[in-house]
């Protein structure tokens, strides 16, 4: 934190007004002259015109002195570089800068000022986003581009946004050359297939036509491919600077009325970037080359972070106009991969982007575990459901919270309840019930939720079954990748059901839903969905794929095997592209298993045999719980939340249509205490 030689630099602020401090950076025509400024206390309701600064603190080394109100304050080298670049030659510059305007030594003041952050940034004339360079670092690299290199990136971005033909010309030629090369490669593959009598002439012609359409770019066949240097130039301003990883900056940029990117003496208005992103399909037609020489659109890669910020900025405008809400879980999920030195700031640093009243106490006297548990409960109360538990886009935790130094705590108040989201981690959403695709549990849960002693969550639901033996391997984990990984479905079928279900579907016992066992099996492997976008399989899709799968899988079983066997081109277990895409998504994390009462399920590590699968009230997908054997005598049965699961035929268990299945399986409601 920033240090002062004299404690009198920061007087108390009146929280009832409320008051903030602004920093007047005094002018100098000499770049190396000492930095001098003055702090002034103002009411947030009547501030003079000021600018705010967004930047990365860098390493916590407060080595650079500035003179503030005639007292010495030490700041980080990166802030020193920014102030020298921003200092005017003849007139003062009025700024709000967190490291200077907040008494960082006072947890109470920090907590109060955090509640004002959205207002502070929304009232500034513009926010200055400092990209660098850090002049205290001798070597310029991709993390600290030089002033000239930052200027090149800004110039290129401006040319692309303005549709400057001198900029676009070469990119267009590169795309045309790439498209021709890809078609040639595809033609060679198809010719080889035809020579092996695998592809009829008519089918060959159709595939060529389809591939040409896929590579044609936008509707008017206009697309652009960036060179390595052009891609790097954009990444220098939109990806490489560490400021894009800083969580606090997300709130600052989302709230400010105007933004200006600053790289030394070079600047770029945010409106240039925002206008480009909003110009579709023009923006989507820009491509670049990434790992393994794959060519992909730039918007989802180079512009990934700025696109999230721009989306949040649009939401905030709609919130101000009263046309939309900005929910806490959505905000936390959108910026989950950003970083903060204090785990609590993963919450506090984004609260200003949430509309409506949220019952969350901002206090740096609470532990991160206490904050995360209380925020999880607050989200449950706000939503009236358990999406934060069943659908949280954070890595499933094992009851422990990880800190920046990599250490873990496992005892006492350091333990994070298993049901609470570990907001210090990034992750992904494994099932997509937030899109109303599934409704495994009842639509809502009781709110306010019942949390005992800040750590035990009392819930209700229905036990669907207990996980049986996991036959693929000793523990649950993603399938092993390799030459035979494509046909993992057939290997799992052999282990659990036997191959007779493919040829004897009529005589083989059907699944609990009444459909053939083999049909229920493959539908389980793709969570009964096609992609993209994710949609539930229609009856016609199931019927079409089912007959094709039966024939295809039986043929695969009868094929000779051995080192001399030639691979079959297009040798995939699923025919429909959307269904196959779903299988590719699922196979990276899930494995098939069955419950002791005969249900087909997909589970993930660390789920194991004897865990139970439950539909909780308010949960759109089933969850895996582990009964704890150390419950004190006379107390309710305690469970640990493990993760989520797919259960075929019961993903709509929360609807009225489930009554027949509930009775058939003998399922009843129970109460659960999650720890």
From TrEMBL:
InterPro entries: HET (IPR010730), HetReg/Transcr_Mod (IPR052895)
Pfam families: HET
Domain of life: Eukaryota
Domain Heterokaryon incompatibility: 50-252
Protein's recorded name: Heterokaryon incompatibility domain-containing protein
Taxonomic lineage from the root: Eukaryota, Fungi, Dikarya, Ascomycota, Pezizomycotina
